[in-house]
Amino acid sequence: MVLSDRSIFEALASKRLIIEPIGDNAVQPASIDVRLDRYFRVFRNHKDAYIDIRESAEALTEEHEVGDDEPFVLHPGEFVLGSTLEYVELSDDLVARVEGKSSLGRLGLLVHATAGYVDPGWQGQLTLELSNVATLPIRLYFGMKIGQLSFQNLTTAADKPYGHTDLQSRYQGQSRPAASRIHRDYR
Q: How many CB atoms lie within 10 A of CB 149?
């Protein structure tokens, strides 16, 4: 079942869920609003002719930082990585889903392509997969509400939560948007 606002407050109080810094009025009836950080990973599509998933994607992207009131302009059809301003930590018996804000979706902004699931045991800032499916550019700002997290209890705590030494948890503890590390599957 999805956690209600009361259950979210209880999870925050017991430290089963850590969100830092949590925004004013961030807890909604069944979710927590998250904000956009100032760092983006943009693709350098003028350098390579294709993406090879067996090769590191680090050189395909570069980090871009915006100032406090400086917009990041996301053009139609463009895809960039962003991250939540909030550090998120989940206990071993809690999972989360990242969803966009409906007001932004109505403008054509998507906040994730496939990575909307947050595993139990996760620690770090969440990388957002930002796409503009509208026909006009969209200005994004540091600190704006960008999405929401909903939470569910697992039936039992995970035996091997995200970050466990037996798992290939590629992004545990990340800060700022992280480029794909799928190439590690092909070593």
A: 25
